[in-house]
Write a structure and sequence with these properties.
By secondary structure, the chain is mainly alpha-helical. The protein has one domain (15-122): DksA, coiled-coil domain (Four Helix Bundle (Hemerythrin (Met), subunit A)). It has helices at residues 21-40, 55-60, 64-85, 100-105, 113-122, and strands at residues 15-16, 19-20. The protein has a two-stranded antiparallel ribbon with strand order 1-2. The chain starts with 14 loop residues before the first strand and ends with a helix. The model is unreliable at 9-13 and 44-49 (pLDDT under 50). Bound molecules: zinc ion. Zinc ion (ZN) is lined by residues 91, 93-94, 96, 111-112, 114-115. The site of zinc ion has 8 residues, from helix 5.
Amino acid sequence: MSANPNIRVIDHPVSRNGVPVWNRLHSEREDICEALLKECSPGSETQVAAPRMSNEDAMHGPNWHRELLQARLRKIDDALDRLMAGSYGNCSKCGRWIEDTKLDFDPAVAFCIDCWERMQTTH
Ligand SMILES: [Zn+2]
C-alpha cells in the first residue's frame, strides 16, 4: 500500500452527503496516523512512570490503544483499496450492495448487514 499524496481524488464518482467518501476516509486516516505518531513516541521528556498505571491501563496493556488505531487504519486502507479498485460499496463477502445508512455511519465498512451479523454471531 503506497501512501502517495499526489493521488487523484477529484474525479472520483463516489460521494455521499456532498462529501466524497475518499475525503472522509483520508481525513480519518490522517487523524489516525497523527495519533499513532504520538502513541509511538517514547515520551522520554514526560514522566512515563509505569508503576503509576491505573488498573484499567494494566488490564488492557500499554499498547491496546495503539492496536485499536492500527486495526482501524487497516480497515480504512482496505476501504481506500476498494475505492480505487471500483468495488467500494459492495460487500467483501457476498458482493451485495452495502446499505447506505451503514456506509454513512462508517465509510470504512466492508460487509453488508447480513454478513456482518453472521460474523458477530459466529465469532
Ligand atoms: Zn454480504
